């Protein structure tokens, strides 16, 4: 790798590492796994740095695919042993922290693919086409997975369906 490419790669890593780690954490649920996923994806990226037009898309796809491989190898979806979202234990004056915790817990009760599509669509704010590229599926699959995941999320965490709902609303649907 020449010095110009090396500098571009270094700038990419410095500028996007935090966002990539956040994405990997939300997908994997574990900071150590997230760091491993990002490090492995960047190691793969550096080998193809000159050939890749959109390095961030490439890295996100690697992160998703590597985590999906881990899910398949494990064969078991990580679930909350309680099997439900518990009632709020303490009152939070702003409500934001508790709401985020409720959403996070409910997300972990979803199937991995449904969780991934919601994270990519609403946390990472990617358009359906980009999500389809990352997940290696059609836009229609992204739409149906999003709809099913939001429906399941509403079942798992009905307390999030109030007037100030934390759940995203798709076009043409009502909470």
UniProtKB/TrEMBL annotation:
InterPro entries membership: RNA_pol_sigma-70-like (IPR039425), RNA_pol_sigma-70_dom (IPR014284), RNA_pol_sigma-E_actinobac (IPR014325), RNA_pol_sigma70_r2 (IPR007627), RNA_pol_sigma70_r4_t2 (IPR013249), RNA_pol_sigma_r2 (IPR013325), RNA_pol_sigma_r3/r4-like (IPR013324), WH-like_DNA-bd_sf (IPR036388)
Gene Ontology terms: biological process: DNA-templated transcription initiation
Gene3D superfamilies: 1.10.1740.10, Winged helix-like DNA-binding domain superfamily/Winged helix DNA-binding domain
UniProt keyword annotation of Transcription present: yes
Domain RNA polymerase sigma factor 70 region 4 type: 101-153
Record GO terms (molecular function): DNA binding; sigma factor activity
Start and end residues of each RNA polymerase sigma-70 region domain: 19-75
Pfam families to which the protein is assigned, alphabetical: Sigma70_r2, Sigma70_r4_2
PANTHER family reported for this sequence: ECF RNA POLYMERASE SIGMA FACTOR SIGM (PTHR43133:SF50), RNA POLYMERASE ECF-TYPE SIGMA FACTO (PTHR43133)
Name this protein carries in UniProt: RNA polymerase sigma-70 factor (Sigma-E family)
Organism: Haloactinopolyspora alba
